[in-house]
Amino acid sequence: MSAEPSLMDLARDERADLAEFLATLTPDEWRAESLCAGWTVKDVVAHVISYEELGLTGLFKRFAKGRVVRANEVGVAEYSAMSTDELLAFLNRHLRPQGLTARFGGMIGLVDGTIHHQDIRRALSRPRVVPVQRLQRILPLVPGNPRLGAGRRIRGLRLRANDIEWEHGDGPEVTGTAEALLLAMTGREQAARELTGPGATTLLGRL
């Protein structure tokens, strides 16, 4: 029996899928708005790679420059100056997460990579089926992650996926696909509108 892939392995696979998809985009699609407010597709890709080559000193400098809350915007501003070909080449050289995104065994790279891949695909109406194995590993990591803000959004609700075995919490039920639940927990209104159940309106109102 083969061993279960590590979070790092799954993060690498997710980035490889993203890179393959990005290679198919037109210039207009790179310039299109993503699900991340104020960010184009190109900006999202810049964000995904923007922590790869930062050591601790560089990380502290970015947080200082961005006053912590705006650190992501600082990284996007730095990397979005690259051409789309340069961004894609950089991503292909960093399919295995490094730097900050390699922390916690690759958890950051896997979770952020999957969410932002969907931010791009949904905005472009280019859907995919996220591999079940990745969703099964990601979903339990999200509710308790303070950086993602899911805890306050889903407090007092019971989330249940209708396409894989996963549920979380107690209270009025919110039901939907695992992918839609993942994106709703992390603040994506488009995905939250696809959810059903007595708790769905409450969750939507918290975004």
From TrEMBL:
Please state every residue range assigned to the domain named Mycothiol-dependent maleylpyruvate isomerase metal-binding: 12-93
Superkingdom of source:
Bacteria
Q: Which InterPro entries did the record assign? A: DinB/YfiT-like, Maleyloyr_isom, MDMPI_metal-binding
Q: Which residues cross the membrane?
A: none
Which GO molecular function annotations are given, in alphabetical order? metal ion binding
Could you tell me which NCBIfam families the record lists for this protein? Answer: maleylpyruvate isomerase family mycothiol-dependent enzyme
Could you identify this protein by its name?
Answer: Mycothiol-dependent maleylpyruvate isomerase metal-binding domain-containing protein
Organism the protein comes from: Mycolicibacterium fortuitum subsp. fortuitum DSM 46621 = ATCC 6841 = JCM 6387
